[in-house]
Amino acid sequence: MSDDRTVKIEVRNLSKVFSDSPEPALELLEQRVPKDEVLERTGLAVGLDNVSFDLYQGEILVVMGLSGSGKSTLIRCVNRLIEPTTGSIRVDGEDITDVPRDELLRLRRDKFGMVFQQFALFPHRTIQGNVEYGLEVQKVEPAERAEKARRAIEQVGLAGWEDAYPNQLSGGMQQRAGLARALAVDADILLMDEAFSALDPLIRRDMQHELVALQEKLQKTILFISHDLDEALNIGDRIILMKDGAIVQSGTPEEILTRPATEYVERFVENVDISKVLTAEHALHRARAVAYCGDGPVTALHKMKEENLSAILVVRTDFRLAGMITAEDADRARRDGVDRIESVLQTDLPTATRDEHLHDLVNRLAGLSVPLPVVDADHKLLGVVSKGGLLEALAEGGSD
Ligand SMILES: Nc1ncnc2c1ncn2[C@@H]1O[C@H](COP(=O)(O)OP(=O)(O)OP(=O)(O)O)[C@@H](O)[C@H]1O
Ligand SMILES: [Mg+2]
């Protein structure tokens, strides 16, 4: 996420009642009557119930909730594909809730790119033609249009497929084309409604990673709808959880998982594999002992004996990680008359960085006779993750 906390979209007290005479429903919502009961008593369907949030410049905000919780209604209100009943939406400081219709089209075109679950590509147009579509609508001249489309196609990894038709592409590729189409118009804001939900799980995971990587470069502001918590955790800088048209919790993935605000959120969170959320940071401990490159084998053996270790990590004097040495190797070096352990180290040691997910460290830790070293960008040893430390962190579930 960017550190820039400029508010890009400000949503305040947004409600949606699907009716031309919404007043009876609004009145009941005001009295905190749940939407099921509002429907029962008035026959009016509530889509949104007093929703407020900020979307910051450069972030990915994921809105999640079960089917019918109001996610699509919300994202469609943001660019007024659905007219909100009450409340305000400011985009770049401009209240768009009373922008006249004709101007609205311009606003929607220039500020928003949309990506849907169903890729909605024109079957009779090539990929190039599909991606150029939004630019055509904007009346961008052909040469510039072609160039912008080409760039967007390249950004989503579809270079070489410009002349193919949608039905010649896999689902994942079609969704990339959908994304390229949204990127081509160069809007600051991307609205993505269940954009990856139609993809099979592995492709879906790839697309999530690619979106995050792309976002690093492009720094768009993204509102992403999902009903999948793992997806939300993978891509969201922040998450909003909705139920019955209202927001029940918002926060960082970490906050949602470790401090679920309501039983509803808790039930949502129960199914998540916590190892995919917690990072090495959460299981980081100081190394119990380290040896230095300049130590002799006897010194290294002594340090291991003191701490009852069968192997020890070895660092340089500036604490950059050099490798490890086992008690067995140190003992052999002693017999061979080696005076510095530096020459007999195992240097091809797996390492981790502090922001890697515990899930990804499990394999690296297996079969290692020292704890897994966690290093910074200069390869300096920050600490270690041991098998016990990892289990402990998972058991605690990150509760600090
Ligand atoms: N045009 C409409 N007329 C009446 N009710 C509607 C309309 N559109 C949506 N609703 C109702 O509003 C509520 C929210 O619907 P919405 O489509 O926003 O849910 P969602 O969270 O996107 O669900 P899903 O995960 O299934 O896409 C639902 O109760 C739905 O029945
Ligand atoms: Mg929906």
What does this structure look like?
The chain starts with 6 loop residues before the first strand and ends with a helix. It has a 6-stranded mixed beta sheet with strand order 6-7-8-3-9-10, sandwiched between helices. A 4-stranded antiparallel beta sheet has the order 2-1-4-5, with helices on both faces. It is built from 16 helices and 15 strands. The radius of gyration is 27 Å and the shape is elongated. By secondary structure, it is an alpha/beta fold. The longest helix is centred in the middle third of the chain and has 18 residues. The protein has 2 domains: 267 residues, P-loop containing nucleotide triphosphate hydrolases (Rossmann fold), CATH 3.40.50.300; 117 residues, CBS-domain. The chain binds adenosine-5'-triphosphate (ATP) and magnesium ion. Adenosine-5'-triphosphate binds next to helix 3.
Secondary structure blueprint with pairings:
Layout: E1 7-17, H1 23-30, H2 35-42, E2 46-56, E3 60-65, H3 71-78, E4 86-91, E5 94-95, H4 101-111, E6 112-116, H5 127-137, H6 142-155, H7 171-184, E7 189-193, H8 201-218, E8 221-226, H9 229-235, E9 238-243, E10 246-251, H10 253-258, H11 263-270, H12 280-283, E11 290-292, H13 297-307, E12 311-315, E13 321-326, H14 327-336, H15 358-365, E14 372-375, E15 381-385, H16 387-396
Helix pairs in contact: 1-2, 5-6, 5-7, 6-7, 13-14
The structure holds adenosine-5'-triphosphate and magnesium ion.
Short description:
This protein is α/β, with parallel strands linked by helices.
Question: Characteristics of this structure?
Answer:
CBS-domain; 4-stranded antiparallel sheet; 400 residues; binds magnesium ion; 39% helix; 6-stranded mixed sheet; Rossmann fold
